[in-house]
Amino acid sequence: MIDEILVPTDGSENAQRALDHATLLARAFDATVHGLYVINFTYAADFEGGIDSESVHGALEREGRNALDDVETGCEDAGVDWTTEILEGRTSVRISNYAMTNDIDLIVMGTHGRSGISRLLLGSVTEAVIRQCELPVLTVPTDAPPLETAYEDVLVATDGSDDAAFAIETAIDLASAVEATIHGISVVDTGLTRNQMIDLLLEEEAERAIESLEGAVTEAGLEVTTEILEGEPHEAIRDYATQHGVDLVVVGSHGKGAIERTFLGSVSERTIRTADRPILVTRHPSGEKS
């Protein structure tokens, strides 16, 4: 269940794209959107007068207020509740701390923001938040197709791990809320080894992972289509999503270890960097939210 959605913003066009996804989900789950702007003086260090320059501080505050005004307008237009705040400090840390102290269920961020003094949080900061925070993070790339209606097709990638199982649960919750079809794939990375026996074991593991996914989605009463693919996992995920017009991709942040690891973990980061679709990265919770 999603009750509180955090949208860090720097006022960029891609931050607005992220807000569109956040308000869509807020409508589906009757959730509140939290707009957050972080003033990071690191980006002002090269300006005359230094990072404590009153004029620089004022400019950043004004930019933050303008960015949050856009969040408020977007939420009002979408008919969802909102709250906004400006903080100072290291951007990824502030985002993660805000999320944990405000009972946030989902963080929605763009993957690239502005350049220079305006680039306060998007891009590499998104990856830092994913690593630091145990909450699901939905990333929206600059070249993602415009969001015109609700999600219709949701892709979830699985390798049979606990994180993949939690990603499936999340995909089911989302698809149920917006009445979407779930696409399930498991990728056999035959490039991991040159051993035919191990390749066979990986294929069998993929079959079990897909069988488990199909059972969970069918039990939830949703439509599902599945496929086992071969190749570089992040490329297979990216290409499938593009070819099938997928609106959202859901992956776990960590997969299986050693030779058993099919694709989750570092592959989720590669997928974020290369895919032209929104990617929701989930992590199996270490404890239940109070």
Automatic annotation (TrEMBL):
UspA domain: residues covered: 1-141, 151-283
A Pfam family recorded for this sequence: Usp
Family: Belongs to the universal stress protein A family.
Protein name per Swiss-Prot or TrEMBL: UspA domain-containing protein
Organism this protein belongs to: Halanaeroarchaeum sulfurireducens
Lineage: Archaea, Methanobacteriati, Methanobacteriota, Stenosarchaea group, Halobacteria
